[in-house]
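Appendix B, record 7
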Amino acid sequence: MSSRDLILARVRRALAGVPDVEITRGYRGPAEDRPSAERIRLFEERVRDYRAVVHVLEEAEVAGRVARLLGGRGAHRVVVPAGFPSGWLDAAGVEVLADDPPLSAAELDAVDGVLTTCAVAIAETGTIVLDTGPGQGRRALTLVPDYHLCVVRAAQIVAGVPDAVARLDPKRPLTWISGPSATSDIELNRVEGVHGPRSLEVLIVT
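C-alpha cells (predicted):
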C-alpha cells in the first residue's frame, strides 16, 4: 500500500458513520444596484486603474475613433474576428485579417493588434469578459498580439461579478481580462506583455 492509499484509508476509517452535514452557502447573487451612468463611470475608473486607456463615446463616433487610434499607433495589419460590426471599420484604412483559416501563433505575433467586442464587462472589477461570441474570436486572438482594442457597449456593463456570471454561459470558453497583461517578481518589478497584450484600449459606447 502506498503512502497515499494508507492516508486515505485512515481518513475513511475516521469518517465511518459520520452523518452528512449540509453546508449553507451565502453566495452573493446578481443585484443591479447601481444606475447605468454610475456603472459606466465606475467601470471606466477601474479600467484606468489597470493602466489601460479608456474612451467614452457615442456609437456614431466609433468608426472615426477606431481609425484615429489605429492610425496613431501606426497599425497597418489588424485581426478582426467574424461578427465584428463592419460599419466600425469603414474609416480604419488598415489591412483587416480574418482568422479563417486560423492564423498561427507566429502570424498573430506579427500583426499590429486585434480589434474585438466583448460578452460582458464588470464595473466593480474593471474586467472585460470574452466568450468567443460574434466579434470576439477564439482566445488566442486576444492573448498573442501586443495590442488589444475592445469595444464595450454600455448595456454590457454590469455591477459586479455575480451579475456577469448570471449572463454568461459556463459551457463557453471564457477569457476574463483585467487590464493589460502584467506580472511582477518578488521585488515587485512590473513587467507588461508577458502573458498577453502589453496595451489594452477600451471604447465604451453609450
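Remarks on this record: The chain is about 25% helix and 25% strand. The mean pLDDT is 92.
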